[in-house]
Design goal:
Length: about 170
């Protein structure tokens, strides 16, 4: 079930870009090897907005600029519960599986690699994470973004459940 994605205007936010990974890709052609570069970057304001982007180009600076532009286009809003996330989430993207769990204040960010970069950019201070399956940095970053996008605001979810419970109660009682 696909949800409508609300686009967030990056012009209103103060965003910090972080380069996570640069990959050199070579293609063998008749004259030799043709080198290209792909870059994975994360952007966020440290206050609940985060996005990731992958850019590919013939030179490293171009790839970095493209990945930053893509990351700004793909910003999402992350619901925060104080300094952590409201509930646990497990998401699989490709062969990469990511587990995110809320943590008590003072725990810090228990994460590695691209998961840490995404979580820091989102502004989460206390979280427990585990990368299961593939260690591919791009897929783990995408799985982390997917997990963060599936989190729900506790008050809004509670209100939604109350409304559906009242509607069901009237239907069966009448």
């Amino acid at each position: 079930m696909k949800q409508a994605i609300n686009r967030i205007d990056p012009a209103e936010l103060v965003l910090n870009d972080k380069l996570v990974y640069i990959n050199r890709v070579s293609k063998v052609v008749r004259g030799g090897k043709r080198l290209r570069f792909s870059a994975l970057s994360v952007t966020g304001d440290g206050n609940g907005h985060v996005g990731i982007g992958v850019g590919k180009a013939n030179s490293v600076p171009e790839a970095i600029n493209k990945s930053g532009a893509v990351a700004r286009k793909n910003l999402i809003q992350v619901p925060l519960a104080g300094t952590t996330i409201p509930q646990a989430a497990t998401v699989k993207f490709g062969a990469a599986q990511v587990l995110l769990r809320p943590a008590s204040p003072g725990t810090g960010i228990i994460a590695g690699g691209s998961i840490r970069a995404v979580v820091e950019a989102a502004g989460i201070k206390d979280i427990l994470t585990k990368s299961l399956g593939s260690a591919n940095r791009i897929n783990t970053a995408k799985a982390t973004i997917l997990a963060l996008s599936q989190l729900k605001e506790p008050q809004a979810e509670l209100a939604r459940r109350r409304v559906t419970a009242k509607v069901e109660g009237r239907a069966s009682g009448g």
